[in-house]
Amino acid sequence: MPRNLTRAQPARRIAAAVLCATALAAAANGCSGDTNERRGGSAFAGAGAIRDGRPGLAPMIQSCAPDCFDFPEQPVFDTDGGNAPPPNAASLFGAPDSMGSSGACVLEPQLSEGKAPGALFPRNWLRPRFRWQPLAGEDLWEIRITAEEQKRPLVAYTKRTTWSLPKELWKPLAEHNIGGPVTVTIRGIATSKGGKPSGTRGTFGIAPAQASGKLVYWATTSSEVRPDTSKLVGFDVGDEGVIDALRVQQVANRSILNEGGRQLRGMNDDPRGVAPGQAQCIGCHVSTPDGEAVVFTDHWPWDVVIASVQGSDTGRAPSYLTPGAQRLLSQPWLGMTTVSEGHWRAGDRLLVASYSPRNMGKAGVGFSDGSPYPSRSDGLAWFDLETTATFTSDQTKGDVQQQLNDQIAAQLGMSFGLIPLLGETRSAVAPSFSHDGKSIVYTSADSTQDGRIGPNNQEVDLHVVPFNERQGGAVKPLLGAAEPKVAEYYPAYSKDDRFVAFTRVAKIDGGPIYYRPDGEVYVVPAGGGDATRLLANDPPACSGQKSPGVINSWPKWSPAVTFIPPQNEEFDRPHTYYWVIFSSARAYEGQFMLPKSQSSANDSRSSQLYMAAVVVNEGDKTIETFPAVYLWNQDPKTSNLTPAWDDFKIPPVPGPD
Questions:
Q1: Pick the CATH number of 214-646 from 3.30.70.100, 1.20.120.330, 2.120.10.30, 2.60.40.10
Q2: The pTM is what?
Q3: In this structure, how many other beta carbons lie within 10 angstroms of the beta carbon of residue 67?
Q4: What pLDDT, on the 0 to 100 scale, is given for residue 153?
Q5: What are phi and psi of 364, to 5 degrees?
Q6: Cα–Cα distances in angstroms (integers) from residue 433 to residues 126, 137, 245, 282, 342, in the given order
Q7: 55-104 residue pLDDT tens
Q8: Domain boundaries defined on the chain
């Protein structure tokens, strides 16, 4: 929590003033325990919260403080796994504070240490899972959880080194927490030896804000890109499982051309066992603003595909995507894509992608047999997804490629076009379109490869260009994310366009940029300023792992931004809550090495997804960040990368039987 919310005694005074004041805004519900979420009630009377970048109301926080009795009076015994703790477990541990000076290394959730805070959870997040590395010989553990609002502790005993807080206890704890820390003590003993327990104690926080949206990420089991080794997987905030959101075999587009444009891309071009013209890879993806589809960069020769993720329509092209737009997106050497809700309505539905120069065709556009590798002049192009243009070629009338390229060149500036990047001297790749549709932040690099960041760069920075209704303009470095001899890349605008998250490596000469062990996640004001390194980059110190070194990358923001206004003299500063998701190859249970291939990164450790809070104190504009929260519902048997967090309309994850 922000530091002025973690003081224990003021929190109780806040409860009466703030929570009961809610009754005035919630039709005199008093402190009755009605969460008011269904009616959109506010946690704070008259709260002018910002949600999705627009005025709204934050969910109500219930109050039963200081006498909440959500935790059971009797200990909880973990019987999962068939090895139940002994009935006399409590007597083996003795008094609650009896423990040695050292104890288990708590890996999940990351707890406070010294002045460093513990992880911060959204109120509606996946229930916490506790996982630790025990001291040698220990075989029985006690988990003790206390909170200021709770009259009694939660005590649990287990023979395993992983234990999840029961759902029925997590929900009221999150609802009733009013700002104080949640204290966790994990003690361990060797039952055959007895003696004083070991012990570790720390805290984590629960924010007065929720998260929203659904997450869709790339899950793969191999560096070899094949339909059977990768897919898109998704879930809703709070889900304890995942679903397959999109598989390669479901993508209905069967009209993808090879790089020359003369025939369908197929086994002659990339022998991976797919049908001619079919998509092959669905890794680098973004959500359409309506949440109904994903836009992704396909495999060689790097075309772009749009496919629905909605139930029975999964894999189909959206109704607005015309055949002409599909043909333009089938051009080779396109890179990562971006879309904006500012340009997502009938008559103005645009997509922006990096665009490599062609070595054939008029005006340098169209289909080309030669890959521009490496390129030093990639640009950004916009595409009208509703264009009525048509593209045909006659195999009996001369050069098919020339026919197609002539038709594409004739549409330059009408159905698609290159965005002027005035002052840019390098290549432009990996763009992020602001949500208001007014600007694009992108990666400026000396060398690019097939629409992506290439090898042997001397400079990799973030630059910003006005979209200016497709006319572009003067390029400006994003101050704080354009440092010399430092690589900054993979930018992403926050939902309110206030910040840009990005990946950074301190030594640009450390090899290829993709999947770098020394990658770390930063945020910077969208208008430029001091960049903030996320505390979430760091694994728990006791794990022995350090960052840089664990491949932190691909940050994306939650579609919710929540503003909590000041309430009284004890809570006198407004705060805005953001959530970020990213991938990391820090050690986890089930981690594996991806099989090597010609396209493998130098480091082949599998990755998983982590979430972290970014909180802005609106009083002095300082930013506080928090350790990462592991998403334990994801499959550890896949390497999970390139997350997208938006209001996806994927089917629900089935609940437990």
A1: 2.120.10.30
A2: 0.91
A3: 8
A4: 97
A5: 65, 30
A6: 30, 54, 24, 20, 9
A7: 344 445 556 867 899 999 999 999 887 789 999 999 999 999 999 989 99
A8: 3-56, 76-206, 214-646
